[in-house]
Records
---
Amino acid sequence: MASVQQRRIEIISRQITGSPTAGQGPLVQGRDCAAPSPRLLDGQVAIITGSGQGLGAAAAKLFAQQGARVLVTDLDGAKAEQVAEEIRRDGGEAAALAGDVTAEEFPARCVKAAVDSFGTIDILVNNAGFTWDGVIHKITPKQWDAMLAVHCTAPFRLIQAAAPVMREAAKRELDEGGVARSRCIINVSSTSGTHGNAGQANYSTAKAGVIGLTKTVAREWGGFNIRCNVVTYGYIATRLTSDKDSGASISVGGQQVKLGIPGGEAMAAAAAEMMIPLKRIGTPDEAAGAMLMLASPYAAFITGQSLEVTGGANI
Ligand SMILES: NC(=O)c1ccc[n+]([C@@H]2O[C@H](COP(=O)([O-])OP(=O)(O)OC[C@H]3O[C@@H](n4cnc5c(N)ncnc54)[C@H](O)[C@@H]3O)[C@@H](O)[C@H]2O)c1
């Protein structure tokens, strides 16, 4: 009789290579090339916060292309609905949910929406966020609290709210059959969190905090086959790195906070030339690719890791 360990490994290699049944060719070993390859996230359900635009929207579309059913959720409900609609138009499955990840009631509502729409949660991506920059001697208490709320407290509360669906389901599977399905959490951080950034004491602190959260979840939930990793992005071309004078803003407690960086794309291009070995900033699709890699069966033995996706900056 196969040991639990052996059964676990068999299940993971089936996920990577495709079912060993006739006509379903392996994806990695290169045998049976003519057979249809399974998609990387077939049958999985993903929540992606802040997926109305930017990195989150790119991830929602990519995950859906790879077979996931996606709950697209964003502060901006119209944008979330638009992304979900695009996914459905392209033949994928998606539902939209409007909401502020920092709201007291949001985590329970978000988990319920995913379960009501798709029955479970296999992948949770904590991506929603923004910047509210200031130099240390000028950062207000509200500015400080807003960053910790969106980048640390919200991911923690969502992970906690997902526990009955992710952790408890895995526990039941272990109790019943000895093997828990692969599930994962991906948090989104920044090189500001790993290296610091002048003008971003609040954001850097919060983005460092979510790395500690990631490693703790990885340790606590690893026994349930729930992996937790964090992606620390460098410059990616989104609203967050566009020109601060472009007019983009976000409302925080009734106050409009301007988004972007001074100088926008020109500034980013100059920084890229000097600091990024690949000599350019990244695209949302490239950022989403890193999330897909971590969510895929190819990352079945990767947990608790902080992956820098920067074009090589800071090496
Ligand atoms: N773009 C970059 O260069 C970069 C670099 C490092 C990290 N990040 C991180 O990536 C994540 C996504 O950023 P982006 O660049 O795609 O920005 P973006 O502004 O293009 O998209 C962020 C999305 O998050 C949503 N959002 C913000 N606050 C929210 C809240 N309280 N509740 C619900 N939704 C909320 C916004 O409405 C928006 O749709 C953020 O956590 C950001 O800090 C971005």
---
Amino acid sequence: MIYKPRTKPRELEVYHLLNSRKNLLDNERKHLYALQKGYEGELLFDNLTSSVITSECLILNDLLLPHNKNTFQIDSLIIAPETIYIIEVKNFEGDYFYEQDRLYTRVPPHSEVTNPLIQLNRSESLCRQLLQQLGSDMTIQSFVVFVNPEFTLYQAPINKQIVYPGQINRFLKSIHTSSLKLDNNLYVLADKLKSLHNPNAPFYFPPSYQYDELQKGVPCSYCDSLEFTTKGAYCYCLVCSKKETMEKRILQIVHHFTMLFPEMKITTNAIFDWGNRKLSKRAIRRVLQKHLNTKGVHQWSYYEF
Ligand SMILES: [Zn+2]
């Protein structure tokens, strides 16, 4: 059972927002593509796990856990009655080869890519220490799962913790053969891990951007277009014609604003400007007062979630 669902990673969200509001550099666009592909791979893996693993297991997706001033990330952690599985999901596509613990693309110029087993071993080691600290001595097994059916790895040693696309089903079935039940301690452990998850851990370096260089506006939720008209409490997209409440659109740009500028104060004027001065300050103030907490008074008031 999914005990902690996956959400879109913050880094990907930030890159998406920036992509629609400024021209990304070439390397930033490539990074966005890699993030998007990675996320799609994880969703694919989630689909497989939820259809194959039906027995007693707790699945915690997308954990960012602290240990001794380090933060480590786990794509999927599966708590089964006798074993804890750490899964690193990779959505690599194409042909690669393995040589002296390094991974290269088969196509010249044979660029080296980061060996996911190295990351996996680091996560496993930190996770083992953390679990010991939490009083658990469960057996841990960790695997890199390559989910893309178009992936081939040449010269890979047979004893590595790798699961290939054609083996995923068997691998997942092997997890749930046990007829044992999860005891209560494992639920307690899962809750502890969930509470330690820190989505705001400084785990990535966003591209540099300034408020002034970003395009302002109130994008449509369906097509991202900034062109719309308003009628009563509704916005009508001029590109895809979809209708949304103004309230929803205002809340959405407030979320984007806090995601991109967590250090800036949310005020009626700030959101008015962020929306390219297209929505009335009265409507903005009403939504902020309804959904956020008001701080300060009069012209100095601002809002917090
Ligand atoms: Zn639209």
---
Amino acid sequence: MMNRSEWAQKAAAAALLVLLAACGGGDGKGEGDGEQANDSATAAAAPGDTGAASGAQPGQTANNLPAGPTTQLPPNELGRIMVLEYHRTGSPEGEFVRTLENFRKDIRTLYEAGYRPVTMRQVLEGNIDIPRGTTPVVFTMDDATRGQFYLTANGEVDPNTMMGSWMSFKRENPGWGPGGMVWCILPAASHPSNFFGETKDRDTPREQREANIRKKMEMIVRDGHEVCNHTLYHARLDRAANDQQAQDWIGIGEDSIKAYLPQDYDIVTFALPLGMWPRNKPLAWAGTYRNGKRYENKVVLEVSGGPSVTPWDTRWDPHSVDRFIVGPGQLERQLQRWEQDPTNRYVSDGDPRTISYPATMAQYLNRSALGGRTPREVAGAPAAAAPAAGGAQPAAPAAGGTTGR
Ligand SMILES: [Zn+2]
């Protein structure tokens, strides 16, 4: 069982390690304590122009949700997906800071361009059940900061957080689907990364603080999001005093998160703080702590790298999954690249039992990873693509674009 005072002590002992400076590269203040309240209310209330596309879809997804805007791109399930990486809300923007307004814009833009959220667990298990003509996208939320997910005094999700924005978008656009966000949590960090930073620990009675955490974790699980371990308090694993300390940071971190999760919840995803590996690299994948207790991280998230391959691809390595940092202009540029040249963009065939890909990608098919799914080579190069059915994106020339890496 978890020992709260033990990890609390560890956290206190790690006085120098203020994760926010670490993760955010010291680029400023800017927790989004609601400073974008006004814009966001309008943004969230704006009607989505998704009607045309949903109407154009012959069917619905397996979850009986409207398909929402899709593309007419031919399927390419050996294409790449973005594992987006968000940290804090605030202003000005930087590599690790996104305004709440732009986070909302990201969701809407992705939806209208035919992207659908899936969790890392879904990717790992190959459980990517999204409508034909759409592209999976993973949202990873690092560091459990206040601007990500916060409960107001009456226990409601603050609408001026990333979680609140997501919920409001999903209410208006059910086609956004059942997939969710991957919350990479630091259970023993200090405010404002102490489990979504309600208050400084000493400012809220322990029972109330724990009740808040429990409630948030319940919502995360209930809404189809995923919980990811990001170590106890964001210490750099390469600076651990020894192998055991690195394993403790990971293993006790996982235990401390699991104390708030259903008993059978299996955490499969782990995010390396700052992308730094332990000196003994395999300890990021599995290890032991506390008298032989064992952890296993089936997915290890890097801190950068660009769009990632998926499990059917010979180049897939779940022990080192690239992420896409949503810094200023970066997501916009990548979406533009894939508009111009979708060769490397994953496009679903709408049937989770088949893996469809163009002949040009056949060399990357890992048959041993199909797990009973049927491979299907499709005619037509992805570059000869039609524009998005939703009409939100202009038709793009097939040639001349750069490929998304
Ligand atoms: Zn982090």
